[in-house]
Design goal:
The chain is of the alpha/beta class. The protein has two domains: 123 residues, HAD superfamily/HAD-like (Rossmann fold, 3-Layer(aba) Sandwich), CATH 3.40.50.1000; 68 residues. Helices cover 50% and strands 14% of the residues. The strands form two sheets. It has a five-stranded parallel β-sheet with strand order 5-4-1-6-7, sandwiched between helices. Strand 6, helix 11 and strand 7 form a beta-alpha-beta unit. The two termini are 15 Å apart.
Length: 201
């Protein structure tokens, strides 16, 4: 019987997309996409999610791509613009799960430097029993150790916990550890899959 849910945050409960900031910094969408793919790939952002300071990450990347140094600096100065709004349907789902008595916590790949910005903006982040932040812990999904840390800190039992994430490798890592999983594509799809597992929502 499922009694707990472990939520990812970015693009499950909170929209995040660097395009929100960079789309007006380029003459064409194609130029922006090339910048995001080649100069600021996900692997680079992952370094900050693992705890590398923004200043260090930006300095290292700027040394490799000096022509893009000004735009790279905006990864920090413009970060708040990358943050979109809450995904309201997911927040409603979270609220209903809590009302039904389910325990809820979050496990997020997020920089320790920028998470406080989100926490100040979104009061529902205080609804969780615990929020395990990769940038604080120095371990990030899909590393199995961060799931084990989240379970240990919350006391959630893997076989009675659903992990919800929009990133398939993270979902697969959680499933391998015995958690129930939902690969999030929309709030409605998430709700439907939870109901199929017998979760009241």
């Amino acid at each position: 019987m499922i009694d707990a849910l472990l939520f990812d945050l970015g693009n499950v409960l909170i929209r995040w997309d660097p395009r929100n900031h960079y789309r007006d910094r380029f003459d064409t969408p194609e130029a922006m996409e090339q910048f995001l793919a080649e100069i600021t790939p996900g692997t680079w952002n992952h370094e900050m999610d693992l705890g590398k300071p923004f200043a260090q990450a930006i300095a290292e990347r700027s040394a490799l791509y000096p022509d893009h140094a000004a735009l790279l600096a905006e990864w920090k100065s413009g970060w708040e613009r990358m943050l979109g709004g809450a995904i309201d349907e997911s927040v409603t789902l979270l609220e209903e799960l809590r009302a039904h008595g389910y325990r809820v916590a979050a496990l997020t790949n997020w920089s320790a430097e920028t998470y406080p910005v989100a926490r100040a903006r979104f009061p529902f982040l205080d609804w969780f029993e615990d929020v395990v932040i990769s940038g604080v812990e120095g371990i990030a999904k899909p590393d199995p150790r961060v799931f084990q840390l989240a379970l240990a800190r919350t006391g959630f039992v893997a076989e009675r916990t659903v992990f919800i994430d929009d990133n398939l490798p993270n979902v697969e890592a959680a499933r391998a550890l015995g958690l129930h999983t939902v690969h999030f594509t929309s709030s409605a799809q998430c709700r439907e899959e939870l109901r199929a597992m017998g979760v009241r929502c």
